## 1
Amino acid sequence: MEKQISFSELEFRSKRKRTQKEVFFERMEKLVPLREWCEIILPYYYEDGNGRPPVRLEIMVKMYLVSQWYNLSDPQTEDMLNENLAARGYVGISGNAPDETTLCKFRGLLEKNGLNKAIFESFNTRLVEKKIMIREGTIVDATIIDAPESRKNKHSQKTPEMASTRKSNSHRYGMKAHIGVDSETGLVHSMAATAANVTDVEMAGAVVHGEESKVHGDAGFTGIERRVEIREKFQDGSGETEWLTNNHKNPPHLVCKLKEGVEFTINKKRGSVTTEEEKEQEKAKSRVRIKVEWAFAVIKHRFGFRKTRYRNLAKNENKLYMLFTLANVFRCSQMKLSTI
């Protein structure tokens, strides 16, 4: 049965100029594979039985997406759906929005069963099958996401599982999001979350898939080709090994031989670049590598995730999987794709 349209919704639809939210929700309605995501969640969703019937899954998924796009808390999301007609039209509700407790429990269900990661991997598989994601080259990078340093809590301590580090001569406290991005399209294919004091190169093995012919990175990935986890991803298959060392402080160790055709293009540290020719070479590397910054710009500035919302690293990692999935959707919209 088709729902009855209220006078306010009718007037809202008939006005001449559409708002930015209307345009955004319309684009996302076309590009988000909602049915596929609902199929991933459905086996874990609540069954209709005794008590109040569960909210329709499609409504809960869209409500959750709204909270991610605008970095809203559960109460803020409920308020937005009760007062913003563009958001109400996208989610598909005519009466009161599901309350904040319902959204909180739904988010907990996704976190408990690792469903955001499953959605991230499913969407990337879809991009590969449709030949949108090329997978011939990867750009690796990491960004720091700040966490509150306040000790005004029942434990009288900072956020657990976070750590301090220094970046650009400034103190930073929080976590790191490590990603691998397709060098052709700028789409994120791999993600890992750690405390902020974990170096970029330590997590390089987690954000490459092993099928690349080129790997690009900044100076934080110096020595990436000598790391054991990278050699295991790109081994030549002969079973032969060789002695290598990561740096002068560590003793040599046996690692797999690197397969032919793999090229690691890593920026040099600023102090080691002296000649004009070297400067031009570094600029050429950076022109390729700049695509990775787009994904960080989307989640931090477009979606507003500049500071951790949860005290637990696993919860923040779960949120990041969904944010980078939505960043890929947003990237596809900028590539002028009508559907995915």
## 2
Amino acid sequence: MVITRTPFRISFFGGGTDYPGWSRQHGGAVLATTIDKYCYISCRYLPPFFDKKYRVVYSQIENCSSINEIKHPAVREGLRYLSINRGVAIHHDGDLPARSGMGSSSSFMVGLLHGLYALKGHMPTKDQLAKKSILIEQEILCENVGSQDQVSAAYGGLNHIIFQPNGNISVHPLTITQKKIAELNSHLMLFYTGIKRTASEIASSYVDNLDGKKAYFQTMKDLVKEGISVLSDSRPINDFGKLLHEAWKAKKCLSPLVSNFEVEQIYAQAVSAGALGGKLLGAGGGGFILFFAEPSVQVAVKDALSTFIHVPFEFEHSGSQVIFYSHEQDYLNEEKIRSQQVIKAFKELEKI
């Protein structure tokens, strides 16, 4: 059995420039971090005498005789891509809900591939995990998704991620003090709006005409540089909150589906309570919303948004990890030892 733990991410600046329709022509860059909220996936081979060959447990339960019968697209194509023909059981649990703007689908894809690779006895690099996940989501499943979520999930940490027109991806961890990281973390507040949406559907409303939104992408490129400057230099941390506000204003220009009346109300209530800025995470439309607020006003912000779930978090730096691994031979050896112990116990009883 293999159990993987893969983090969810928060994207600060640069979202959209990681979509291949833009980055393959102009290049892209994002500033993002992973947090201590995770996607957990367990994988194990099934014995051959089960009625069904594949068992997949997530928000639904699937028992299938062939890969083609599996409805979960990431599981189906992940098994097919790695040519896993033996019976497999796959279970998913997550700290945060799906379709919420936290990169959950990519965290699932990265964690699944990590688990399936390990099940086959291979430990992939972070680069391999990220690129294989991008390939399956973008080219096989044809999802309208970017490339930052897979990279963040695989690598972990607070990173400046650069997407080259030739397809190369470089990950640059921010070299800032722990004090600065803690200061940033202490000013961030995460709330769940309860509005579920599918990122691919929201993104499809603006990715078809990326060249027509050059002003937005130039703004996001500049904000990535500004955000890094705030964290790397001696500028006041509150400047980061003001940049988030600018990013949110720019993001809403992408499509009318990015925001809505309820989201605007939430944002206005938080700002009225003292937040300096914020943004919906992911493609938009709902899910989680991030605010930047000084610690002295955070109680007021929580009171203003008391009908929504506040989710405290810390930054994490590990990326996708195999947290439990039991090789099939180890399992067989354990069963052999147990059988020997049972036989020995019976022999002892016969002597009585």
## 3
Amino acid sequence: MPPRAIAVRIFMTCWLVYSLHFASNIVREIYPALSLGDHFSFRVDEYAHMHPDLFETNGYGWHIGNNPGASMVAAIPYALARPVIDPIVVAVQNRRAESGEAAPPGYESPWPMAREFYAEAWRRGLDVKLGLAAFVIQALSMAPSSALGVVLMFYLLRFVQRSDRTALWLSLLYAFGTPVFFRTGFLNHNMMLGHIALAGFFLLWNPEDRLRWSTRFRYLLAGLAGGTAVLFDYSGVIFLLALFCYGLVNRYPAGGAVGAVRSGAWYVVGSLGPILLLWFYQWRSFGHPFFPGQHWMPPVEWIELGYQGYGWPQLELLWMLAFDYRFGLFVVAPVLLLALAYPLFERGTGRRIPVPELAFLLGTFVALWVFFSGSNYTRLQFNTGIRYMAPILPFLFLPASALLVRMHRRAVVFVALLSLTISWPLAMYRDVESGYGILNPILRTFIGGFQLPVLNTISQLPGMFGQFFPHGVSPLPLFLLVGVLLWIIWTSRLAGAAVPADSSRHSG
């Protein structure tokens, strides 16, 4: 089967499954997306006090402290969906006015802040709008962006593994056996950032010269990816600099010092657009182009340490980022530990990942790890699950997969099942705060059965839908429907036949 046909199937599979696991979390990045889609403005005054990360700056109104990249992307599908969303919102508000409803219906969430948020959103007439907008944004921007990231992983794995079949199964393991699954449940700038940076790496590496584009064009696009990573979050500076340094090293053997400098210059040119856009956003939103939004953020927990909560690296935070039972990188994705062991088991000229690329992958991980060990807000991940280290997932999965395929088949099956046993319950139940950390969603899955986040939310609204589902909403019909669609995708003649046994070796 042609690699493109496999890639299309991977994309459609991931898009469907990710959208099915939509979580109705209203994160801070949604508010600027709505303002951009409604008014083409960064100001979120109409949502004041709806989220703890929204704050007011004298003379500039209400904004979020985070970079706007994810909100800008999310604003596109929301704006396109407004002709459908707006009439529904108006109809619901008219029905409530006619019925004389004056108080919000009960919301039986176990979390007090969630109950308070829903009540306030209902009083402002925003509950339906926020819910529909969150779904549109997740299904039409977040889910497809992660699906594209998995497709990109497939193409990189084709080179690393020298096998289409192996690359296919490993890319699906990456999609559903790592926290990519969990973080794609709602709009998440960290995961988007990681896949954007991965695209920059692919452009610079260009394994086996698969891309026929000119060196200048590839470096220009890679710079665009690096700059966009910063537009999404200031941790993207790590990837911007890492890609720049790797690009110089990668270009030096063929172009010498002059060629490396010229290519590096094109990388810098490519990065300027997104960075200038970020500075424009900061100027329009806060009155100064160069200070981050966090500079104006009002006092919150841990903000008194360092500069607005960011200081020197701390050993305690290094350990928490890696091994905390609620959000540690190697706890929620133990398969990634293989990435650290890979250099010990594969050496010499026949290694699957060349030395410069391996140094970039592991070096970027260390740099990001140390960077966030200085952020005291790391301690707040107990109620969100893995967050700050999410961008590094694709960079560690590549060397991890290279070692995984060297292991005995039974060990590979065990690692894959362990990864899925952690990842899927986390995407379904999403609760790592209470009790046992990541064991909490796993235990709830084995004891309470399968679930989908949005169906769980619906069942907790007795005043609206819950009376129809007194025992909860079963996800099995939706699982069956998506299962049929996936069967069609992987067997339909439109997409090509199933992956044949003799196509495991990819051709040029």
## 4
Amino acid sequence: MLKKIKNITINFGPQHPAAHGVLRLVIELKGETIVKVDPHIGLLHRGTEKLMENKIYNQGLPYMDRLDYVSTMAQEHCYCLAIESLLGLKITYKASLIRMVFCEITRILNHLLALTTHALDVGALTPFLWGFDLREQLMEFYERVCGARIHAAYFRPGGLSSDVSQDLLVDILNFSINFDKRVDEFMELLLKNRIWFTRLTNIGYIDYKDVKDWAFSGVMLRGSGYFWDLRFFDHYENYRNYDNIKIMRGNNGDSFDRFNIRMHEMRQSNFIIRNCIEDLFFFEKNYKLLDSKYISNNYKIVKPKRAFFKKDMESLIQHFKLNTEGYVVPLNETYRVVEAPKGEFGIGLSGNNTTKPARCRIKAPGLLHLQGLNYLSKNLLLSDLVTIIGTMDLVFGEVDK
């Protein structure tokens, strides 16, 4: 009697904790070997782009915090750069340095979560506990500068929503001085673990040519040997002052290389934070800039802070109009990208001589990475799929939008 053997099709998610969000995968298996992976997304879709097209420009800013809710300030940054590009608005040197400090704090926050939850998926609990201890300290810096731990809304077109205190900068600097030692502890814990090494090596391999064809970016791109980082090649803000930093690239294009790059980038971000704060203190001492110029003086665009300190009716009216009507953006369009922790995050905006964008389009790196999941996991084991999802660093707020 002949027996008919056929492949089995199962659902992975959308409630599975290793799916890193509301991801549903329809997986075709031959035994435990993956034949095909079909990602199903959209379960978190809220129509963010259309919502932003019906709000004035400043009201669209909080939507950035609700996309990749692990890297909030990085996305606020991109949105502010796009608006500043449409308006031809320049920010002060001090505001740029503070933006860089908090963008790199955001990168460390993201990588700590990505690495520790990835380790948890593979079976290691200790990195998760250590990483969240460090994240708690960084979240406190968020809270002290803007009053919120996740939905910050700290960046503004023209600068920042508020100044940063000298005490906070000192505390961030003290954290930065000790942070490299904590990264060493992570490296010692994981690199010397043969289970971690075995689970990541040669898993999720993608070569130099294919990684470009799949439009991967960020760590996924650099892990396959590509020499590209928008911070140092696009030269937004003042990253050009630190373009001598070594951009780490992988040799094998596998999950282990991507793990190493994220560890290196945390050290790199820590170095940038330390140097930015030292530059801020230098200008305080020599040019008395620490207590001024954290936002543009163009009060047609930004809220006039003097309205809170003077009996100035004109400023008060301008403040009211900015909050209710917004500012007019000329007929123009722009596309700005930043090197967000997960990859190249882009915002496309079209102005049409009104206070609301005519078009808003968001490019999320996670969506492009997810489309290559079948390519990366084909002919591997089901347990390897969990490793690959973890190394992609997916958050579905930005994927589904």
